[in-house]
Amino acid sequence: MTGQSRVRSHRGTPTAPDRLLSVLGAFDHQHPALSLTDISRRAGLSLTTAHRLVGALTEWGALERDESGVYHVGLRLWEVAALAPRGLGLRQTALPYLEDLYEATHENVQLAVRDGGDVVYIEWLSGRSSVGVHIRVGARWPLHATGVGLALLAHDTPESQERYCAGPLASFTPYTITDPARLRRVLAETRRTGVAVSDRQVTDDALSVAAPVRGTGGAVVAAVSIVVPQVDAQVPVLVPAVRVAARGISRALGWRPEK
């Protein structure tokens, strides 16, 4: 949901929860601080309705108002988010292994989960390399354009993969995978090797190597990756390091490989 999208019920008429969610949806990475007028406009609500809902959300702690009268997302939402098993809980389990991967390489390290047709980054350790992909926690990208996304999509059901391949494949650079047949081949290779390589798909200077993270039952629940400058990328060296990190996180989550 984008900030300017108005949430509606299945009947097409906004309900009270729809309007409340549209206020929260007005905030995003490009708009982390908003005035009441901005919230009203971006949420598609009258100023009176926005004022009432913002007041309720501020009282509860979902929003905070600074001295200048501008609103920000409140800490109460962060506290609630910490309860999400695919959010901060997963991050806390994975962090020691992400830090080990960073110490071994001093490169950019990511942890991401899937949300529909996108990946959402829940951790990012910034390395010494200066690459064009400036990921932030909470940022999202289409599955086919990132290493973590390819690792996640490759381990989905064949039916889900086909639906994704049949949909529009957004392009960000001349190297972004936009051909369904090529994407199918990449996904097959990812399943075969256990790692995904995304070469200059989001920016033309970055390459990522990713591996899937499995939960207790063996299902893929996340993906870990390392991002390096494409010109100096040593993929054969990066692959084992990423695999070790993904395997460590998986074991910490309760996964036990079949013997």
Individual helix count: 9
Strand content of the residues, in percent?
15-25%
Poorly predicted regions: 1-10
Coarse shape:
globular
Number of strands: 9
Mean pLDDT, nearest integer?
Answer: 87
How far do the termini sit from each other? 43 Å
**H/E order of the elements?**
HEHHEEHHEEEHHHEEEH
Percent helix: 40-55%
Q: What radius of gyration results from the CA coordinates?
A: 20 Å
Largest sheet: 6 strands, antiparallel
Instruction: Decide which structural class fits the backbone.
Output: alpha+beta
Strand order of the largest sheet: 6-5-4-9-8-7
List the helices and strands and how they pair.
Layout: H1 16-25, E1 33-34, H2 36-43, H3 47-60, E2 63-65, E3 71-73, H4 75-81, H5 88-105, E4 108-115, E5 118-125, E6 140-142, H6 147-154, H7 158-166, H8 180-193, E7 196-199, E8 206-214, E9 220-229, H9 235-252
Antiparallel strand pairs: 1-3, 2-3, 4-5, 4-9, 5-6, 7-8, 8-9
Helix pairs in contact: 1-2, 2-3, 5-9, 6-8, 7-8
